[in-house]
Amino acid sequence: MQSKSPYESGLDKNPANYVPLSPLGFLERSARIFPDRISLIHGDQHYTWKETYSRCQQLASALTELGVKRNDTVSIIAPNIPPMYEAHFGVPMTGAVLNTINIRLDADTIAFILEHAESKVLIADSEFSDVVGTALSKLNRDITVIDILDDAVQHGSKVGSMDYETFISQAKSDYFPIQHPESEWDAISLNYTSGTTGNPKGVVYHYRGAYLNALSNALNWKMRPHPIYLWTLPMFHCNGWCFPWTIALLGGTNVCLRRVAANTIFDAIAEYKVTHFCGAPVVLNMVVNASESERKSFYHPVEVMTAAAPPPAVVLEKMEQNGFLMTHVYGLTETYGPAVICEWHQEWDEYDSAKQAQLKSRQGVPYLALAGLEIMDPKTMSSIKADGATMGETMFRGNIVMKGYLKNPNATKEAFDGGWFHSGDLGVMYPDHYIQLKDRSKDIIISGGENISSIEIEDTLFRHPAVMEAAVVALADDKWGEVPCAFVSLKPQHSPQPSEADLIQYCKENMARYKAPKKIVFGQLPKTSTGKVQKFRLRERAELIAKNNAS
Amino acid sequence: MQSKSPYESGLDKNPANYVPLSPLGFLERSARIFPDRISLIHGDQHYTWKETYSRCQQLASALTELGVKRNDTVSIIAPNIPPMYEAHFGVPMTGAVLNTINIRLDADTIAFILEHAESKVLIADSEFSDVVGTALSKLNRDITVIDILDDAVQHGSKVGSMDYETFISQAKSDYFPIQHPESEWDAISLNYTSGTTGNPKGVVYHYRGAYLNALSNALNWKMRPHPIYLWTLPMFHCNGWCFPWTIALLGGTNVCLRRVAANTIFDAIAEYKVTHFCGAPVVLNMVVNASESERKSFYHPVEVMTAAAPPPAVVLEKMEQNGFLMTHVYGLTETYGPAVICEWHQEWDEYDSAKQAQLKSRQGVPYLALAGLEIMDPKTMSSIKADGATMGETMFRGNIVMKGYLKNPNATKEAFDGGWFHSGDLGVMYPDHYIQLKDRSKDIIISGGENISSIEIEDTLFRHPAVMEAAVVALADDKWGEVPCAFVSLKPQHSPQPSEADLIQYCKENMARYKAPKKIVFGQLPKTSTGKVQKFRLRERAELIAKNNAS
Questions:
Q1: Structural domain boundaries in chain B
Q2: Which one of A487, B322, B363, B458 is least enclosed by Cβ atoms within 10 Å?
Q3: Has residue B511 got a pLDDT over 90?
Q4: CATH entry 3.30.300.30 includes domain B444-550
């Protein structure tokens, strides 16, 4: 019999040397060390960290008095305003799970989420009272609703039993003993994916991942203390990529924005000296295409983090020309938002801006807290060749991968098959270990046996000065099997407006000729509630085109 | 019966979403992303991160071939040279525990440590072959010894069976599959405290704490990527405050120094553009008292982290005058090195330098990964009044507190009594939640019923321009019970040299008169192997003085 190692005896966990990881500690720390620094600005409202901590404690106290307890779900539907920020602390402080709901969803989907999440309480901004009212009428059970009545909202009626400010102010105490999680594996939040088909899936985050991704944001983005952070990214989207917690960690200032538009972004940057913001390409497009009257000058560095889609290289390049410092990240709802970063090399500074933008349009390398990132053949689960050409599925492994999908063991099992999270995104691995996304599995076009990346074509189209947005899908073709079909919206102010033949010719001149789209359709692009192009709708249109071609 | 929460079902840990926290991943990440950046400089030797990773794998591979396995102890006695850095990764990569041994220890203590730690392998720098040879002759068992033969060492003989370079180069493979810890609670290292009495205690660190303190170092010190880090702090001391792992995390450059002296520090700063170093006050004293011929000019910011003793305010002030940017931290071997930081407030920038140095000489607030820091009455375990005056014992709680003392359950239990780690350091809490150390429990002087802080007197003495070092202990006194007795070494070059009466008068003019020392003794101060003043020796001398006074 082997004797026990001395390292395995008398060295156990105890309250002095083991505390579950939790981002709630960031708020406590900033309130204690920087009580009088500005935590949050929303129009005329200014809060300090001491005040924000106190308001979060009031919210937690009021929720507890309502009967909310550990592992209950508290939902909120609101834009980026103070109660939304406070919910990221006040709800978990009670042990409950925070469920943020996308403000652009329809009543049926909202009702589905409230039902599936078994929400005990809904905090709802009055701007959305109509759709919320309809959703509530479809529910088979009662739910406590708290209205947020923001001065900035002109219309909107009350659907709840009490307004948010009254609710938190009547809490018996603004001292609330934080319920630190019993385990860092406990659920902190629940985020529904905006699936393009079927019911949305409920992605569950744990405290450990929220803590670690908040730290990774700060370290990977090289953030200094006290950033001025502008909320252009919705907090309902992957908990704002965990930035509510990161900004508390850094004792920064949250600048809220109810309405994200070119002028409100430039106004905030100029007025509050914003140092950082995050945004999908749709936000970047707003910024680079802003009119002269919407713009304001700024003379300080502004760091911008962008993700997904992926952003066309030309948009990154134009943002840099507009004076923004760009960082490109990639992730999914299932990975707490950003989990991959295009880590910059100093020696790349010497390249010209187009080459830099191209390097920056690669997704990159694992975030600090991500243990593994590979491009694999999902059948064999072996890594593909790191040649920048061989495609495979992007796989994730580590502490910033979700707990799983709520009440959906089959989808959870499938997602984690073989010990890796399957993203469904197709990509390549370069010899320098940087990954680049090529497509969603279902967005690849197979033409004459060749794989054509719809993203590559979109990227080329974006470089045309008249193109505002572009999305490419497969079009059935008798000869080639599939050919690329591009849907394009043009900048209205650009003259001359290019024709279909012009754009096809442009593609042929700027990429491998066989990859050029065979068909261009002009018009507005259909979008999901999070601003992503709905390719399934474009595919439906492409089917109609193919049918017409055949007949 | 209560039904199970949906959050407690089907959302378990699996290899895709749970990976034990480990600082070894930092090395893998930097080697993968920044393979060609310089990782380590030692004289003419320059390694890249790819090479360092490969050498660590070789070390791990060679140790494994020797039979080293999980929970074995591998000891190393060496200054800050490449094998010492490599051991911080190569040893844990095998699953073994790294035990670094202080190079200034005597043979008896080294033998005690090798015996108590049950070391399987000792890696020993030939500069210490004499004392190591003697220590080995006192051991009752055989141990595999590997010699480090550094070109910089002229003397020294071999005591081992093989030299380090041969050992690692004969490893069958430089590809070594890292043994990630089975649990993040596994032991990563073992550090013996340099107790002033009795046998040293073996402080056991876990992977979780090493990971979290390495992250906290980067975030709390606001480090940017790719620092140039000068090794003035010994890596054998609390694993260099976890900085071997922090520098890997940041893809920085380690500048090694076999011999820490004023000229080698200034040379390295000028030659390699060092951006950061850590050092005890003894190192700072070297720097501020450097002669003109030892100095070199530098024109870039150099951040310096210092801890313990605590550093006299005047030394901090002089460092700033010498162009260094000072950060003050505090911790113990039991807290992975730094666990408390004097977090700076921007508004303090407006104070004059003396006031700033005074604020900076407070120990401050919890490190990011430290959950709790309180000043308590150890009898009642309740927090003392935060008035900057009431004294209590400094207590720690969180993930950067040790697992415990190896094979010493009683000392472990005592240290963790009441769910907090008892530091033995006395301090006060200010209303702004910053702590300041006043003394070790046993270093307080009780004179006429008043507590007098020996640190406060030392701080005052340090402000005298002729004083090089000062240490104060209690002297038995018939009238007062105890009175302060100061041991002082003077700067030899300073003229005029002050008398005992001069210094007592100086203290009376610069602090509460009753706190001034009644006795000054001039001469060199006895130091421990880590450069701390051995107050127990001074207390012995004070006893002799008291005896002479009485007779």
A1: 444-550
A2: B322
A3: no
A4: yes
